[in-house]
Specification:
Elements lengths: L2 H23 L37 H4 L18 E2 H17 L7 H12 L55 H7 L14 H12 L9 H11 L3 H15 L5 E2 L59 E8 L2 E5 L9 E6 L9 E7 L7 E2 L6 E5 L5 E3 L3 E2 L5 E10 L4 E11 L8 E5 L7 E4 L8 E6 L2 E2 L5 E8 L5 E3 L10 E2 L6 E2 L1 E3 L8 E3 L11 E9 L3 E10 L18 E5 L1
Length: about 575
């Protein structure tokens, strides 16, 4: 790049900035494809990679495109206006505005802002061979961001988009840094690819980026921050705003509109006059000639009016086909795939129509589409006019949501709502109770007259702790048949719990439910007036999971009682579901 050329271009940009801003002071859709990131995510800032000084993408353009004439005050830029925005670029900007408005209505993104950025970044890709599908014949790549005159950004995309494996370059009509595109890239063209070199994709990605952080671009301060986050230059902001206001004031005519977008003008059929028979010249005589009778001329036929062409059919309505009432368990994918049908005004299916599916009024903690977790998805209808939205996964908790499906023509929006219900996963049920803490593998032991404290057991299922498990603890003994039965409170002489209100001896208590760690803590077990011996405490859950604990009560030293308790009748610890 020659320094002189760069100097001329940069000088031109400064002049353009001043003139465009001065001019602005004198003056007061169809949805496409899914955003790739919610604009409510963290807001890009002026120190983000996208906002670095990345040079002028127009330096490789022909001179008449790279350095347009200075716009007159109050007027439009030379070369703009009637033919300034190529039809494909204008369509991309307007489609992006409609898509963002549908998904993020609070952002209030004007298409003229995208056009202003597209004008500054690449002159709407007009010098690169912009094609009807949004791609360009020539790649649009900015200077290498190698720290020499620009910020240094080492390669982040392995050259996938910018063809440079050493450093990053801004790419495409909207000049995205590859690392920015990785987060905000979108499929605005409907070809299932996210390519910053496609103006439909780039315009939608730029719209989402500008709306980040729940911005409201109708607020001047937020609009200013948004543009600064795109390129941290006051000159850049003023230039973009200048073009945006010019477009808002009417410099928006389309050059070469795409076929089918506007009616083709018809040429009137002119009548073909019939040939007339010439009259013979009269021979002069001495006798005065009789006046000749004029030969009547045929009356030309009036042209037959050309039959009016019927207006092209437009989108007329959406109908729910499947999924009117969506149901799934928390964290699982919906088995029913939401499907809607788009119909035209002539009753035929709308083939290739874009339909936006958006999750709204969600109380499930995040019902989303696909592994990337998108809250909205845009798909095209098939040959039957049906749009399906697969991969809808229920949020992590029970709740409800609305799935809005919307289709758009150039002026109207058609919407149907599907309702979704997510049921909470059933709480896991403990299948095991086990004693925890030091000495958990040994029988419990306490000296007579001393309370037993700190006994804890853990409720688990498949090796994982289970919260909310309720259990009872009861002193048990064997009956004549050898079965474990609760002791008779009137005759029992073993360890006991103390009633919270009246202090009465209790041989059976309801325990507090297990915590998040699955642990259940037993209340204090008293042994006053309890004879030395071996006793058994049984814990039973509502699901009939049982843990049998052996308790040895030993005699006090010097009490004269035998220090050795009776031999145990059962194993030390038993846990089972009955």
């Amino acid at each position: 790049m020659k320094p002189l050329h760069r100097h001329l271009v940069n000088t031109s940009r400064k002049v353009l900035c001043t003139a465009a801003l001065a001019a602005s002071l004198t003056t007061a859709a169809v949805v496409t494809n899914p955003p790739t990131a919610d604009a409510g995510e963290s807001e890009p800032t002026p120190d983000s990679p996208q906002a670095t000084d990345r040079g002028d993408a127009r330096l490789d353009l022909p001179q008449d495109v790279a350095d347009p004439a200075v716009p007159p005050a109050g007027g439009v830029v030379a070369g703009e206006g009637a033919s300034g925005i190529p039809a494909t670029a204008l369509d991309a900007y307007k489609r992006a505005e409609t898509a963002v408005a549908a998904a993020l209505p609070n952002c209030k993104l004007p298409w003229q802002l995208l056009a202003g950025i597209g004008r500054v970044e690449s002159v709407h890709a007009s010098g690169y061979g912009l094609k009807a599908d949004g791609y360009t014949e020539k790649p649009i790549r900015g200077p290498q961001l190698n720290g020499q005159g620009f910020a240094e950004i080492k390669d982040t995309d392995k050259g996938e988009w910018d063809g440079d494996t050493a450093y990053d370059r801004a790419v495409g009509p909207m000049q995205f840094i590859p690392s920015t595109w990785a987060t905000w890239g979108a499929d605005g063209s409907g070809d299932s690819k996210r390519d910053p070199n496609n103006i439909y994709d780039a315009a939608l990605g730029a719209g989402l980026y500008l709306c980040a952080g729940d911005r409201n671009l109708s607020d001047q301060a937020q609009l200013d921050r948004a543009i600064l986050s795109y390129n941290n230059s006051r000159e850049y902001v003023n230039t973009v705003l200048g073009y945006m206001r010019q477009y808002q004031s009417g410099a928006t005519e389309v050059a070469n509109p795409p076929v089918g977008t506007y009616p083709t003008p018809t040429t009137p059929v002119l009548p073909t006059p019939r040939p007339t028979t010439p009259t013979k010249p009269s021979t002069p005589t001495t006798t005065p000639a009789k006046p000749s009778t004029p030969t009547p001329q045929p009356t030309p036929e009036k042209p037959k009016p050309e039959p009016e062409k019927p207006a092209p059919a437009q989108l007329a309505k959406l109908e729910v086909v499947d999924g009117a009432a969506l149901k799934a368990e928390a964290g699982t994918e919906f088995t029913a795939v939401p499907r809607v049908k788009a119909l035209l005004s002539d009753g035929k299916p709308a083939v290739g129509q874009h339909v936006l599916f958006a999750v709204e009024e969600d109380t499930t903690g995040g019902t989303r589409f696909g592994t990337e977790g998108r809250s909205h998805l845009v798909v095209r209808t098939d040959a039957q006019g049906i749009a399906a939205a697969p991969g809808l996964k229920a949020g992590p908790k029970g709740g409800t949501f609305t799935l809005r499906a919307s289709g758009y023509d150039t002026t109207r929006q058609f919407t149907v709502n599907l309702t979704g219900t997510v049921t909470a996963k059933p709480a896991p049920v403990a299948d095991l109770l086990v004693r925890t803490g030091a000495g958990a593998d040994k029988p419990l032991e306490v000296v007579a007259g001393t309370p037993l404290t700190g006994v804890k057991v853990k409720a688990a299922a498949a090796g994982q702790p289970v919260a909310g498990t309720r259990a009872t603890a009861a002193l048990v003994e064997k009956d004549a048949a050898g079965a474990w039965v609760p002791v008779d409170p009137a005759k029992a002489k073993g360890p006991y719990f103390k009633g919270a209100e009246d202090g009465a001896k209790l041989f059976r208590v309801e325990l507090d439910p297990s915590g998040a760690d699955g642990v259940i803590a037993l209340p204090e077990l008293l042994t006053a007036d309890v004879a030395p011996g071996t006793y058994h405490l049984r814990l039973t859950t509502k699901e009939n999971v049982v843990l049998l604990l052996e308790l040895k009560v030993t005699a006090k030293a010097g009490s004269g009682e035998s220090p050795e308790p009776k031999a145990p009748e059962t194993p030390a610890v038993t846990s089972a579901r009955r």
